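REVIEWER CHECKLIST
Item 1: Sequence provided? yes
Item 2: Single chain? yes
Item 3: Sequence as submitted:
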Amino acid sequence: MNPSGVQYSVVLNRATPAVKQTRKFSANNGATFTDSTNNIIRIPLATGSFQFVDTRASYLSFTITNNSSDKDAKFDTNGNCVIQRLRIESPDGSTLEDITDWNVLNAFLHDYTQGLDNAATIGSMIEGQGSAVPNTTKSYANNSCTAIGEGASISVCLPLAPCGVLNANRYLPLGFLRSNLVIEIHLAPAATCLNWETATPTAPGYTLSNVNYVADIISFSSQFNQNYEQMISNIGGVQISTQTYSNYITNIANAQSALAELIPARQKSIKSIFFVMRHTADISTKNIDSLSARQRNALSAFQIKVGGALFPAQEVQGSATNSSEMGAELYKAFARLADTSLGGKITRANYLSAEGGFAFGLDLEAFANDSSVIESGLNVGSQGLPVELIGNLTADAASQLNSYVLSDMILTFTSDGGVLSSM
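Item 4: Structure as written out by the authors:
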C-alpha cells in the first residue's frame, strides 16, 4: 500500500451547501437579574424555520456587577458559580434536563479535567477563571480569580458543557419544532457563589445584565430540508445520544463513622457516579470558596451497593497519606485513566488534605472506553434497584454530600415537532 502522502485518489467528502450565522438569544422575562429578586432567567431558543443549532459552538454570556458598596468579590472557580440550577424545557413545557447544584459540579469538573495552562489562558480570558493550583485554605486571599470591585462589572462567556442537550454531538433541529426549547437558569445566593473580601460585606449581592445565549445557527438548502422532513416523517423521529448529570443530596452528621447513603437514581445506563463532600457551615460563609471547599472527612473506604451486588467487589481504600487508589478510580470514572493529555489542577498534596480538592467516584460502565456504543452503563431503572453508597469515614463536621450520577441520555426529535428525553 502506498503511504498516505501519495494517495491522491483519496479526497475528503464535499460538504452539503450550508450557511452559518451566529445569533444572540435573549431572556424573555427581564433585562436584569439579581441573586435575590428576579433570580430565574428564561431564554427561548427561537430559531427561524428549518434551522439547526450547533450547541458545541455556542455559549452563555453575561455581565455581572458587584452590588456591595464596600467590599470586593471573586468568583468561586469561574462565572459558572452564579448558576445554581440549569433546566432545559421542551416545546410542551416538560423538563428535558435538570441539573441542580450546577455550580458545585462545575467547580469539581474544572478542578479535575482542566489543566492549569488552559485555566490561565482560555479559562481566565473568557470564563473569569482563576489560574493557580487550588489552595487547601479556601480564603479570599487564596482565591486566584480576578477581584470585582464594589460597584464594578466584568463580562464572561461560558460554554455550558455539562449540559447534555447543549453539548450534544449532533446539530439540534430546533427550526423544525412546533415551539421553542427554553434554557432556564436559577441564580445562586451571593453568599454561596462568590468569595467576599470579608465575612460581613455591606449589601452583598450581584446583578446580571446583557444575558444572552450566543449560538451558531446552520441553514441548509431547501432540498436538504425537504429530505430531512421526509426522513423524519418516514421513521417518526430522529435520535441524538448524549449524556447528563443528575444530582442527589444527603447529609452527613458530625462525627458520623459509617456511610449508608441512599441515592434514588432510576437511570437505565449509569456511566459513573461522582461524590463531593462540603461542610454545611461553609456553604453560606461569605469569605470562603463555598462551592469548591471540598472535604475528605477522613474517608477510608467506599463501595456502591446496588440490590445485593457490590461495586467494586472489594472496597476502594485510602487515607490521609495514601489515596492513590481513590484517585485512580476517580479518573477511571472520567474514562481517562491512561490519557496523559487530560489536564487537572488537583495535586497530590491538595488531594490528601483534609480540606481542599478531595472528591471520589466510581466507573460503572461496561465499555467505558468505547465511544461507538451507548447504554453500556449500570441499569437500575428496569428493576427499581436501590443504589447506596457505603463505606467508612470520620466526619469532622456536619457535611453535605452531593452524588452526581452521569448517565446516557437519548433525545428524540419527533415528526410532530416535539422533543423527548430518556435516560
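Item 5: Key structural point noted by reviewer: The chain has a mean pLDDT of 93.
Item 6: Recommendation: ____
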